[in-house]
Amino acid sequence: MLAAGLFTGPAAGENTGENRVFGTLESGNSAVLSGAGSAASTAARLLLTAGFEIDSRTLFDQPGGRLHVSAMHQTGDNGTRLVGDFQGFSNIDAAGFTAITEAWYQHHLLDGRLRLKFGKVDANSEFAYVEHGGGFLQSSPGFSPTILGFPSYPDPATSVNLFYHGKSGAYAGVGVYDGATQAGVATGTRGPSTFFGTPDGLFSVVETGVHHRVTGRPGRVGIGAWRHGGDFDRFGGGRQSSTQGIYLVLDQSLVTGPAGRTRLGLFAQYGYADADVSPVQHHAGAGLQWYGPLTDRPDDSAGLMASFVQFSKAPGAGFTDRGELAVECFYRWQAADWLALQPDLQFIDNPGGRGRPDALIMTLRAAISL
């Protein structure tokens, strides 16, 4: 099971010139309506996030930089034990932890075109994200599950990142991250020691693309490549040093409202990895997110998406089904400035690719802004 999708791009990377303290409490209660693979049929979990950002003007009277520190506490059930799905129907599921999950500093140079970011970073806040996939509870819209050892929730990692944004809308970014999760080390609860020492094996990623407009509607298309320098078990036997893959991402506004605000947005993803070591060789996902679906509810949102993973056919991989399909729909009701409630329905076809029954899952996510 993979957990992802808590981030939708470098919104936290924007230099607002303001200091801020933030916090959220998210709860998710799920019930398997059909297809439970264990005696239990419900799961509940909590995720508390708190942190602060300080502008560099406050720190040392110089513009262009920001310091960010945030911590998380997660507890509760892991929903995958109910249905055995691979992609992860709840993106806040984890084994339970308390940690400083991000602690980074970034600085803008060349009139904001160049951005340097270093420290403990969730890679999904910068790479492989789709903005219009950010409202879904399914993990795969966060990032493609073909990306092995991606340093994202619940295991951000020490890193160095560099980004360039051109005047024409083109952009490029590169990051080098501690890849110790491949060796079983939980980087989310650790500092930088494994970035500089054992176990070795760095995770590197590069992404380039362009922010564009189609008939005046904003969009973005990007292509990325990643490499993990750790050691991997081959399904057919033996070990290999390093593996790599590619991914594609697309965000496109289809309908805009007043002030150019997106009303209907489309996202699409594709990922590829080496089937000799990766459980998933191909991944494809797409969906729609509708912002303000009711005229008197501008802060509500709704979404519909599908995500498919094709499992490795390599001898020894152990999959009996070709792939797993997840379909999700949700409605997010912004009940108050500080409270959002999101009923969510997912159907999982061939969960886990090993002959388990198809599953229908209902989840109620509640988010409180502290």
Automatic annotation (TrEMBL):
Q: Which domain of life is it from?
A: Bacteria
Q: Which residues form a coiled coil?
A: none
Q: Which Pfam families match?
A: OprB
Which Gene3D superfamilies does its entry note?
A: Carbohydrate-selective porin OprB
Q: Which family does it belong to?
A: Belongs to the OprB family.
Q: What is this protein called?
A: Carbohydrate porin
Species, as recorded: Spectribacter hydrogenoxidans
